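Hi all, long-time lurker, first post. I run a small reading group and we've been trying to get comfortable going from sequence to structure in the token notation. Rather than ask abstract questions, I figured I'd post a concrete chain and ask someone more experienced to write out its structure so we can walk through it together at our next meeting. Sequence below, copied exactly:
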Amino acid sequence: MSILLIATIVVALAQSINGYGLFYEPGAVITKLEVAMIMPEIPAAPGIHYIWPGLQPNGANFVFQDVAGDYNGGSWTFSEWTVDSNANYNKTDDVTVYLGDSIDILFSLDTHTGEWLNRWTTTPGSTGQAAGETYTVASTIALESQSAAYGNLTQALFIIELQEGATWNFGTLTFSNITIEAQTTSTDWCYSPYRDDAFTSISGETKVEVHDNTYTTCKISYIDFIAPGNVWGKTR
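-- Answer (accepted) --
Happy to help. Here is the structure in token form:
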């Protein structure tokens, strides 16, 4: 399974890239992805660490993603990206985020216009509050023309991306309150995501509903990506 990695295209890095991911593949158009990403510890050097949820087509030649990274060194920043395999990209301004912040993310397709809404809000945790961070809301529209050439977005991704010798040294990564909506009546995909690279993850309660014999909603209470050396993850 391939992933269109953001900075590979943008800055043409020659260094090796490693990553871990889960791919939910309903085999149909995804019309909504909603998730809260809980910010982990700031990673230690070396390298660049990215964590993100996003959407891509089967061809993995376009990705719509909301990304936290430490490429500025010593802190997490967050931004929205759309990237294609021709090195065309759009990126919003970086927002500094902190350990314990909840970033609530919504990707939603207007099936009449083909436009995608991306809305995200940051709710500060105790570290962010101590730094003077405030609640933030932002939204953008990705025009139909940005993704039409690459096909429907049919894969929901949850990714850790490691570059320039980075290692997974920031503890457990949690995605919570996950909803994936797809234009299919199939349900098996919600219980059996494709796993990219060998790592441990723990998923919470999973519920699937088929609506009007037309579309399916997959809801997962949380997914923990467990860092090496921390087999059991955090206590719930």
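A couple of things your group might point at:
The longest strand covers residues 215-226.
DSSP finds three helices and 16 strands in the chain.
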